[in-house]
Amino acid sequence: MDPIRNPYAPGAGQRPPELAGRDEQLSQFDVVLQRVAKGRPERSLILTGLRGVGKTVLLNALRGQAVRAGWGTGKFEARPDQTLRRPIAAAAHVAVRELGHTQLDQVDHVLGVVKSFAQRETAANAKLRDRWNPGIDAPAIAGRADSGDIEIDLVELLTDIGGLAADLGRGIAIFIDEMQDLGPEDISALCAACHEISQSSLPVIVVGAGLPHLPAVLSASKSYSERLFRYARIDRLERDAADAALAVPAEEEDADFEVDALAEMYAVTGGYPYFIQAYGKEVWDLAPGTPITREDVLVAVPRAEAELAVGFFGSRYERATPAERDYLRAMAEVALVDAEGNPLGGASRIEGGAATEETDESGSGTTAYNSSLVIELDSVPTSEVAKWLGKQPQSLSPARDALLKKGLIYSTERGRIAFTVPHFGRYLRDHP
User: Fold this and answer.
1) Which sign, positive or negative, has the C-alpha torsion 355, 361, 363, 364?
2) How far is it, in rounded angstroms, from Cα 192 to Cα 224?
3) What's the rounded Cα separation, in Å, for the pair 294 and 298?
4) What b/e readout covers 248-286, taking b as 16+ CB neighbours within 10 angstroms?
5) Cβ neighbours of residue 194 under 8 Å, at least 6 residues apart?
6) What is the C-alpha separation between 72 and 158, in angstroms, rounded?
7) pLDDT, tens digit, for every residue of 272-315?
C-alpha cells in the first residue's frame, strides 16, 4: 500500500483521522457549553483513563467545540515541577484574547489582573530583572489577584475573566492535561475556585484530563470535589468503534479491511486507540494491496510491537531505576493468575502445565503460558509484589512511591496497584 496515503496517525495527542467511540462525550459537552452560556448551572468536567486511550485527543476535541461556540479557551499541561500560577495565567491570557471583547478598556483591565496574578509568583521585593513577564502589554492591576494566596487569587482571576465573557453571552474554558501532576496546594485552590465560580453562576468551566487516580487526588483535597465535577472514564473502544477507527480512514483512501483482519486487529490492540493507530500504520505500509487481510495483520504485528517497545513502552521503562524496574517486573508476574485466581508468577511456581520454561539460543529463559489457563489481573496487591521479591512491603515503599510520582503505576484502592500503561505487563514479560 502507498505509504504516502497512509491515513493512520500514532502520535502523542495527535487526532486520529476518525475520532470513533467518543460521540457521547462530545454531545454532552455541547450541552454544557450551551447551558453555561445561558447562565444555567453546570459542573466542570474531568476525563480519566490509562495512557493511550485518547484523553488528550478528546481534550483537544472538546476545546475545538468551545472555540466554535465562540468561547475563550486556554490550555496547559501540568507538570510536577511547576506551580499552577504561571501556566494558568498564560491559559487565561489566551482565553481573553480569543473572546474578542470590543471594549478595549475592560479587556486591558482584565489582562492587567492576569498580569498581576502571574507576577505574584515572584517575591514582592524581587528586582525587576527577576520578575516574570507574561507578555501582556497592559499594566498590572495592583490589589487584585496578587495577595500571594493562590486560592484567593485564583478566585479573583476566574471571576474577572468570567465577567468579561458574561458580557458577550459566552464563556471561558480552561483545559488542563495531566491534571494529577498538580501539587496539593494547587489542586485545593483549583477546587475551591471552581466551587466559588459555580456558586456565582459565572460562565467559567475547567476541563481536566488525567490518570485513573485523579478523582481520588481531587477528593483528598476537597471533600466536595465529588459533587463539583462531572467525571467521565475514557476507556478502550468497543469493537464497532474500533472497526470504524480503522475502516473509515481506509475507505477514504479507496481501501478496506476483511472481516477477519478487523477481528485480528481488535485482538492484538485490545481496542486501545493509540495501539489501533500504531498497528494500523504498520499494517497499511506492509500490506501488498486491498483488501487488507488477516495474514497482512499477522505479518505487521512484529514490526508494530517492535516500534511500541521502543517508543511507547521502552521510553517509560528507561525512566525507572533498577529497583523500580524490579518492582515493575514483579507486578507483571504477580498479575498472572489461573482460572481459579491462584497466582502463577513465573514458570518456577506453576503446576498443572499452565506454563513451560523455554531457553533460546543465548541461554536466557522465557516463560510460555497457555493462554486458555491464564488470566491477567488489572491490579495487584502490594503484599503479593513484596512476597514475589522476597522483601518486606515497607522496604519497597520508596520504589513504589517513586513509580507513583513518575506516573508509571497508580493505586486503584488501598493496598492495590496497577500499571498506567495498557499491556505494560505483557511488554515486561516479553522483554526479560
Assistant:
1) negative
2) 9
3) 6
4) ebbeeeebebbeebbebbbebbebbbbbbbbbbbbbbeb
5) 44, 206, 228, 229
6) 12
7) 999 999 999 999 999 999 999 999 999 999 999 999 999 899 99
Cβ–Cβ < 8 Å for 348, 397:
no
Res. 431 pLDDT band, cuts 50 70 90: confident
Q: Does residue 371 carry a pLDDT above 90?
A: no
Distance of CA 93 to the CA centre of its chain: 24
Average pLDDT over residues 223-246: 93
pLDDT digits (tens, 9 = 90+) for 104-143: 889 999 999 999 999 887 555 555 444 566 678 888 899 9
d(CA 337, CA 374) in angstroms, rounded, equals 6
Give the rounded distance of the alpha carbon of 379 from its chain centre: 19
CA distances from 93 to 104, 195, 310 (A): 14, 22, 38
Q: List C-alpha distances in Å: 268 to 262, 264, 273.
A: 10, 6, 12
User: How open is the CA angle 17-21-26, to the nearest 5 degrees?
Assistant: 90
